[in-house]
Amino acid sequence: MADEAVPERSTGGGPLSGVLVADFSRVLAGPYATMLLADMGAEVVKVEGPKGDDTRAWVPPVRDEVSTYYLGINRGKRSIALDLRDEADAKVARELAHRADVLIENFKPGGLDKYGLGFEAVKAANPGIVYASISGFGSGAGRHVPGYDLMVQAISGLMSLTGDPDGPPYRAGISVFDVMAGNHAVIGVLAALRHRDRTGQGQHIEVNLLSSALTGLVNHSSAYVAGDVVPYRMGNAHPSVFPYEPLPTADNDLIVAAANDGQFRKLCEVLGIPEIADDPRFARNADRTERREELRPILTERLAKRGAVEWFELLVEAGVPSGPINTIDGGFAMAERFGLDPVVEVGEGDRAIPTTRHPIRFSETPVTYTLPPPELDEHGAELRRWLTGPQEDDRG
User: Fold this and answer.
1) What is the pLDDT of residues 39-66, one digit of tens each?
2) pTM for the whole thing?
3) Are 205 and 133 spatial neighbours (Cβ–Cβ below 8 Å)?
């Protein structure tokens, strides 16, 4: 950014070039959403409290004494530290909101109202604002309940589905509903920007983790809502498809996901038991699922002849979905093997850090990786000068 004015409407890079995002979020769901928007070319100003985003202190692990958690979800942004309890700082924050195209926040519902930063106040000064609020349990009866992913994994029922059938419920290995809600927020913002392009009208978008969780439970939610069935913990097994789980080989377990009759036939051919595909006991998926305890030992007896990686090569070549169970490094190695280039570098010189590639590729407006995750208030001086100066009418 150097000494130039903040490029509120940049002219290059990404499908969202020219969109200014005021990021009043912290921790995961909101910062993940704004990072995705920044990757796609939006100008993102990250507003932090005097002590910074909570994840700055979530260590270990670290890279150069900085939390890798924070680094993983904050590239592409400029940081300004503002104490909203201080009227001078609150005035700067309001000016940012009045100039922005998009505002994303994850305070408790109504938490920004007292600073003149609630939706109605911002809309009055900026009618075209797309204002996205992310909460744990919505702005109604659940407005006062803190929204942490682990709570939502428990309350939504996900934990009841995760773990060994005879063991305790488990959380997922990541904050899955924070990430899902962040993605839903991005979808909502993009849809609202499309609406604004047509009508000139902004609007308020509300996303909550519990609703994201219930839609994200997909077939399990449908089993209850449409079938009046409460799903239960099945370990790594699938309630409606078999084989669709880890199976033992000569060395390690291998995921086998033969989800239709054609894939099952190919599986049997590769395993050297083509007659099993014609066995009336296993002819259809419903039959295989019902008789999984009969079919599993037949498959595992053959899989014991080779190791997981060798079977993976043979099965994938035949068109049978399968995969070894990797650690994270193995996952990145597999992505490299498939030419996905999963790691990109953001920043330059001493500030350059490796980061994961944005998941979407655009043929005409590629994503950009320009700014490394900012230090606390790294751009505060420049942003204050810009926000306290005259506003240009550049909405065209």
Assistant:
1) 999 999 999 999 999 999 999 999 999 9
2) 0.91
3) yes
- Residue 89 annotated to the active site: no
Spatial separation of the C-alpha atoms in residues 370 and 77, rounded to whole Å: 9
Strands 66-67 and 62-63: antiparallel
Pull the structure tokens for residue 280: 């009336």
Residues 133, 109 contacting (CB under 8 angstroms): yes
Residue 22: its H or E element? strand 20-24
14 backbone dihedrals φ, ψ, rounded to 5°:
85, 150
Active-site position among 64, 178, 377, 394: 178
Adjacent-strand bridge partners of 356: 343
Q: Which residues contact 292 (CB under 8 A, 6 or more apart)?
A: 237, 242, 243
Element (H, E) at 247: strand 244-248
SS (H, E, C) 103-127: EEECCCCCCCHHHCCCHHHHHHHCC
SS3 state of residue 70: helix
Q: Write down the pLDDT at residue 96.
A: 98
